[in-house]
Amino acid sequence: MVANSIDLATTYIFPAQLGPMETSVYTLIESPTGTTPETIAASTNGLESKIYKIALAKSGDIASIITKATGREELKSPIRYQFTGEFPHKYPAWNMTWKDRKRPPRLYLEGKAKVSVLYEGPWQSAVRVEREALGSTFVQIIRLTQGSPLIEIEEKIHWRTRESALKVAITPRIKSKDAFYDMGLSVEKRLNNSPKLFEMPEHRWMAMTDGQQSLSVLNACCYGSDKPAEDTIRLTLLYTPHSNLDEYRYNDSQDFGEHTLKWGLMFHEGSWQAAKSVQRADALNEPLLVYHVAGSTKGPLGKRLSFLKAEGVQIKVVKQEENLSDHSRILVRVYEREGKSKTFKLQLPNQIQSVTAVDGQERLIGKKEGFKGATFEDDIPAFGIRSYIFKLNRSSETRLAAGAMLPLPYNIKAFSNKDRTLQSTISEGKISLPVEEYPRILRDKGVEFDLSASLQPGPDVLGAAGQSLTLPKSANGNIHILAFGTRDHIAKVIIDEKPIDISIPRFHGPIADGDKRILDDKFILKSIRPAFERQTPIAAYANLSHGKEGRLSYYPSYLFHCILPAGKTIQIPEDPDFFIAAISVSNAMPVVLPLDERESNCGVSL
């Protein structure tokens, strides 16, 4: 189905059947006459799927949720957004008081809402609710997906409300004296609010049950919650407290800015384990990554590949072990998330040669048996963690694409070392790339870059000064540039007389940041710097930079990988803020770009 079409971009929604740690290739063919399931009905009055019928009040609140299989009304009263007064005595950034919890909400998000249908189709439908209150604006997008028991709510909030927390209060028909809260490595069972325990941290979900019927509340990025009554459970979305002390005056505007949050409701029978609340909460936080594969390129692994399957545990980490010299050894870390001791099973993609149990720092615990072919079994206690290093048989060795690393006429020194025997001349030496943190040969996306000049005293990068580079006749494929800037800007290069704009970020500092409050010398809010995200693909990263006096810890540095179309010549601009660390020409597989806009190819279309 087509969800929307804006300018040249069209958003499609379709059911993709994938298991954990699995990839699959789909080809979308638009057919005006194809058969599709019954549409999930969407109107300004609500939504209706095969599982739920949702009715909206004039205020925009969810007034009714009926589970269609049983005809049961799940809500005792509408879901309401509450502004609770927050006046802590000290440490206001995180402190809440029982006195404030006993007070009724200072206000509800109410009044006439603007409701519209965002999209409607057989696989997913959504309505949009817009409201305003206390200087803030609120947009809720309520979604139902075909076959899913989750009611998903996405919040887009422009927050400017002081002395308040924003809470969502859910009042189901069931009652309980306690609730379950996800702690990441365990699950905490806690009684309803009391003078000493009334705001509960939780990671991705919480649940309440009367022993038969249950409610799970899932969330992404909302980590506070409470249960003020047997029939009420609340999720804390935002928190801006009053501060009565000058030293904490800056907390008067904390959380001010733009927020995008997600949470959801799932009504079910039985326990949170039976409803798979853990897995569904993880899916809400970690949606499928979708990539565009250009053309009809065929790879040796086929259209579907399962890298790792697990029974009885949750896979939390898969990576190459810290000893990077042996590429056939991978680390797998698993969690038991249901609170039950058990025997679990892992299915790997290739035959297992050996298994080593390690701790969280990858220190040896001991060799493990229990593997046969590509299958491994072991025991794990309730809420246990286990880490293993697997050595696998490789069906074929990974090979880099054919290509060539070009020698460059370096003219600037950009790398320095920690003992200062290599001095950078870039940015007058005020900040430079730490040579000890970057490899001599850098590999990214199947392409090799030569950084060996960084180990020498002389120049190691090409500063853009109008140079013209001729590529070797033997070099075939796209042009790969390892580049960086001293400021965020657009650099202009010319390939075979064709001009191309490249988005080049600065090489140091945050790669992204949320809304940042700008305060005066008395900690009073002056303005808010908008959030930003640099979308140029990072080829290499170090968690530090070098300054004139030495290491700048926790001030990261980067090298960016831009892929340009094939050509015979490259004309570099005269640009004092644009630097090239390496250029390679490679016939690597066509670049595969994600469709979620978190990364682009430096703004260049191939």
Report the top-level CATH class of the largest domain.
Mainly Beta
The total number of structural domains is 3
Which segments are poorly predicted (pLDDT under 50) over 5 or more consecutive residues? none
Most strands sheet = 9 strands, antiparallel
Strand content: over 45%
- The tally of helices reads 2
Textual characterization of the structure:
Helices cover 2% and strands 48% of the residues. Strand 1 (2-6) and strand 2 (9-12) form a beta hairpin.
Quick synopsis:
This protein is mainly β and 606 residues long. It is built from 2 helices and 53 strands.
Element layout with pairings:
Blueprint: E1 2-6, E2 9-12, E3 22-24, E4 41-43, E5 46-48, E6 52-56, E7 62-67, E8 72-73, E9 80-85, H1 98-102, E10 107-108, E11 114-119, E12 124-133, E13 136-145, E14 151-159, E15 164-170, E16 178-182, E17 187-191, E18 200-201, E19 205-209, E20 213-220, E21 224-229, E22 232-240, E23 257-269, H2 277-285, E24 291-292, E25 304-306, E26 309-311, E27 314-320, E28 329-335, E29 342-347, E30 352-358, E31 364-368, E32 371-372, E33 375-380, E34 385-392, E35 403-405, E36 415-416, E37 431-434, E38 441-444, E39 447-450, E40 462-465, E41 468-470, E42 478-485, E43 489-495, E44 498-504, E45 512-513, E46 516-519, E47 525-529, E48 532-533, E49 538-547, E50 550-564, E51 569-571, E52 574-586, E53 593-594
Parallel strand pairs: 36-37
Antiparallel strand pairs: 1-2, 3-25, 4-5, 5-6, 6-7, 7-8, 9-10, 9-15, 11-12, 12-13, 13-14, 14-23, 15-22, 16-17, 16-19, 18-21, 19-20, 20-23, 21-22, 24-53, 26-29, 27-28, 28-34, 29-33, 30-31, 30-34, 32-33, 35-52, 37-49, 38-39, 40-52, 41-51, 42-50, 42-52, 43-44, 43-51, 45-48, 46-47, 49-50
